[in-house]
Amino acid sequence: FTSNSWECSGDGAAMAYEAGADLLDMEFVQFHPTGMIWPPGARGILVTEAVRGEGGLLFNAEGSRFMLDYDPVKKELSSRDVVARSIYKEVQAGRGSTHHGAYLDIRHRGADYIKKKLPSMYEQFHALGGVDITVEPMEIYPTIHYTMGGVWADPETCATTVAGLYAAGEVAAGLHGANRLGGNSLSDIMVFGRRAGMAAAEFAKSVAHAEVSTAQIEPETAALLAPLNRTSGENPYKIHQELQEAMQTNCMIARTEKGLLACLEKILELQTRAENLAAPGDRRYNPGWHAARDLRFMLRTSEIIVRCALERKESRGAQWRLDYPNRDDGGWGKKNLIATLGTNGVAITTRPLPEMPAELKALIEEGK
Questions:
Q1: Is 195 a catalytic residue?
Q2: Which residues contact 285 (CB under 8 A, 6 or more apart)?
Q3: Over the stretch 209-225, which tens digit does the pLDDT of each residue have?
Q4: Distances in Å between the alpha carbon of 181 and those of 106, 142, 176, 316, 367?
Q5: 146: part of which helix (H) or strand (E)?
Q6: Is 95 a catalytic residue?
Q7: Is the pTM of this model over 0.90?
């Protein structure tokens, strides 16, 4: 379950992968600690960190302010991964809220203050959940928020391993490492979007453009139109729902080899079933047809995330392996995972971590 828009379905990373680009560290997926959990139709919608910034407190079903146990110094303002894992642990321990989350309470700030400082949250819970956050606590649970992994891109030009393909923003990897600080993705896309655009423009001036061959277009056209031509087959929404449940159950915050293998098995089954998707009807106003196209990318991206999570046998940043709870700085800390399109599907290899630039190393040493 995700805080992202419905149109964010992994297309960028999946298309780059299909074109032959390297995907880097796809296992690192950030969970925002506070997303709506009820009603079901609103599940995953972001509950801004401003609620905790304005004094919102987290409680379990027993009325205990549990962040005092997990981080007595920073409390509710601890880092995203710490807060998300703390909520997860409380739910797993049987101390979850009515709908298996936690309570986020801002009532003590008073109705006037809440409506002035958090108007969008007041309206969101009122409109989507029928909850007045000035008199009731919010029910929340961690939600997928950001992908640190993605397409490998050169930091200066944003060029990928495929000539003429450039990547910047959340689709690219390398800038944030294993976790991401809140608020820095806008500066990311501003800086590297500009670099990517400038480099792409220069590349476009230097090459001759040939006609695209029909041999490349026809197979893609046939695959795109196939669900429209079937009167019976798999429902794309059903496949999507099963994929979502599989990833939520076994590739969420806490991961184990057993769970990841079960998730991978389910994804491969869904990929096979997705070859027979049906979305009969017209091309116009047919969301089922659009969903059928998105599924190809969602299934592939999910497979790569799971395979990388299986391979990285340590806990680091957003990757929390219950069977490998410690960080391995001497081993996994010195290499990246690379996913590429191999002859038999997804190929996972490792690559030595690049040496940190001297100017960045100096800044880090200065900060110590």
A1: no
A2: none
A3: 878 888 989 999 999 99
A4: 24, 16, 8, 15, 16
A5: strand 138-147
A6: no
A7: yes
